[in-house]
């Protein structure tokens, strides 16, 4: 199909439009129920199976120092996803994300060419100290995306909030977001510092990733 038909077929998507509006206005967007309860359950089960099979690795931080210092910064365990040999669960995930990426590229000329995603498990007692995602020394990271895979028994006292630091009229404000199942948070990687508060009583499950240019 040629370009003109492509454009004629374009259908405005209200959800994606609201994400774009949020990003333009405040550099982050929170989308509850981006994934359905069933999709979250399937992804959570896939994550837990791999976690129990010991496929996860202790996360590292940009400048490799020693284990002790790393634990003081971030305590999660991760497993990178490979879209090329994704299972059924991850296929649903990538389809949904690719749709959003296509839309962003078409409507905002975002120029997103690459993406990288990993599963993450924050065991009880762990956290990720305040940082910018360019900490990982990757200037190509444009948008950070986090999708939460906890079950619906997740309680406020479990902590694990994602705190995003936003500047409003030169005042810094901390926005606390609970890792609720099906919730997706998307924010500007180069702009917003954020942290994961200490997780209590349970482990915190998610997929985190980046949309990248060039
Ligand atoms: O899990 C989250 O809410 C955020 C994770 C994060 O900041 C990161 O992996 O860089
Ligand atoms: Fe981060």
Span between N and C termini? Answer: 25 Å
Instruction: Quickly give the CATH architecture.
Output: Sandwich
Major beta-sheet overview: 7 strands, antiparallel
Strand order of the largest sheet: 1-9-6-11-4-3-2
Tell me the name of the CATH homologous superfamily. Answer: q2cbj1_9rhob like domain
Low-confidence stretches: none
Mean pLDDT: 91
Number of domains: 1
* CATH fold name: Jelly Rolls
Q: Helical segment tally?
A: 5
Global morphology: globular
**CATH class descriptor:** Mainly Beta
Number of strands: 11
How large is the share of residues in beta strands? 25-35%
Pfam family, one: 2OG-FeII_Oxy_3
Cofactor: L-ascorbate
Organism: Mesonia aestuariivivens
Keywords: Dioxygenase, Iron, Metal-binding, Oxidoreductase, Vitamin C
Offer a few descriptive terms.
single chain; 214 residues; alpha+beta; Jelly Rolls; seven-stranded antiparallel β-sheet; four-stranded antiparallel β-sheet; 29% helix; 31% strand; binds 2-oxoglutaric acid; binds fe (ii) ion; 2OG-Fe(II) oxygenase; Oxoglu/Fe-dep_dioxygenase_dom
In terms of topology, how is this protein built?
Blueprint lengths: L2 H6 L5 H13 L1 E4 L5 H16 L4 E2 L8 H7 L3 E4 L7 H21 L3 E11 L5 E4 L9 E8 L13 E7 L2 E7 L6 E5 L4 E4 L7 E10 L1
Helix pairs in contact: 3-5
Bound molecules: 2-oxoglutaric acid (AKG) and fe (ii) ion (FE2).
The site of fe (ii) ion (FE2) has 4 residues, from loops.
Task: Give a quick summary of the entry.
This protein is an alpha+beta fold. The chain is 29% helix and 31% strand.
Can you describe what's shown?
With 214 residues, this protein is of the alpha+beta class. It has a single domain (9-213), classed as q2cbj1_9rhob like domain (Jelly Rolls, Sandwich), CATH 2.60.120.620. It is built from 5 helices and 11 strands; from the N terminus they run ααβαβαβαββββββββ. The chain has helices at 3-8, 14-26, 37-52, 67-73, 88-108, and strands spanning 28-31, 57-58, 77-80, 112-122, 128-131, 141-148, 162-168, 171-177, 184-188, 193-196, 204-213. The strands form 2 sheets. Strands 1-9-6-11-4-3-2 form a 7-stranded antiparallel β-sheet. It has a 4-stranded antiparallel β-sheet with strand order 5-10-7-8, with no helix packed on it. The two termini are 25 Å apart. The model has no long low-confidence stretch (mean pLDDT 91). The structure holds 2-oxoglutaric acid and fe (ii) ion. The site of fe (ii) ion has 4 residues, from loops.
């Amino acid at each position: 199909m040629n370009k003109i038909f492509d454009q004629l077929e374009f259908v405005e998507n209200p959800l994606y439009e609201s994400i774009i509006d949020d990003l333009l206005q405040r550099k982050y967007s929170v989308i509850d129920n981006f994934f359905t309860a069933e999709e979250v359950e399937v992804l959570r089960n896939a994550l837990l199976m791999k976690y129990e099979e010991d496929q996860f690795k202790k996360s590292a931080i940009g400048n490799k120092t020693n284990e002790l210092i790393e634990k003081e910064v971030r305590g999660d365990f991760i497993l990178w996803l490979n879209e090329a040999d994704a299972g059924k669960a991850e296929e649903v995930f990538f389809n949904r994300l690719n749709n959003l990426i296509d839309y962003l590229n078409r409507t905002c000329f975002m120029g997103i060419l690459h993406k990288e995603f990993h599963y993450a498990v924050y065991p009880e007692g762990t956290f990720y100290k305040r940082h910018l995602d360019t900490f990982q020394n990757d200037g190509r990271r444009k948008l950070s995306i986090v999708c939460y895979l906890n079950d619906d028994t997740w309680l406020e006292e479990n902590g694990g909030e994602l705190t995003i630091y936003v500047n409003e009229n030169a005042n810094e404000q901390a926005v606390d977001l609970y890792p609720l199942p099906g919730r997706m948070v998307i924010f500007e990687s180069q702009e917003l510092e954020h942290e994961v508060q200490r997780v209590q009583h349970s482990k915190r499950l998610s997929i985190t990733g980046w949309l990248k240019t060039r």
